[in-house]
Amino acid sequence: xxxxxxxxxxxxxxxxxxKERTDAVLLARLIDRIYGNPDWHDQVYHLYxxxxxxxxxxxxxxxxxxxxxxxxxxxxxxxxxxxxxxICTYNNFCPFRLEDDQRADxxxxxxGLYPLASLFNHSCGANAIWYCIGDVMIVRAAEFIPAGAExxxxxxxxxxxxxxxxxxxxxxxxxxxxxxxxx
Length: 183
What we know:
This protein has four helices and eight strands; from the N terminus they run E-E-H-H-H-E-E-E-E-E-E-H. By secondary structure, it is of the alpha+beta class.
């Protein structure tokens, strides 16, 4: 929830696009969280940040480190803003509220970063779906998933095939073929 009387603007210098104001607030809150809790640094920086950055390690989540005192003016972790922007670009979710079909504020769609949910791969014909209740993300099977099969989720929740393609275009090199769409 953002105050309506404040103007918040941000420009992503990686993709050269203007972001929604909720993206700017997400980035600021993520920086605050990493600054105050160094364990979050490893959890966030182990996420995919795009082709310009090294691939994240295969083991996730990283082991927790020993608690360290947090100094107000001397951070214990290196915070790379450009990399955090890239991580948010490839991993943020738009958690719609369940109680209403339409967003109350059409100017600002909600944005959240869920590190564990970011590890799921995308499929237009996904075998699981996700939704949010407040700050909690729920991932639920949409069909029978055999043991050992990969669980996939749709990255886009847009209603039409064309809208899904437009939303996915900024992240994927090839278009997504939806097995449920007849051409």
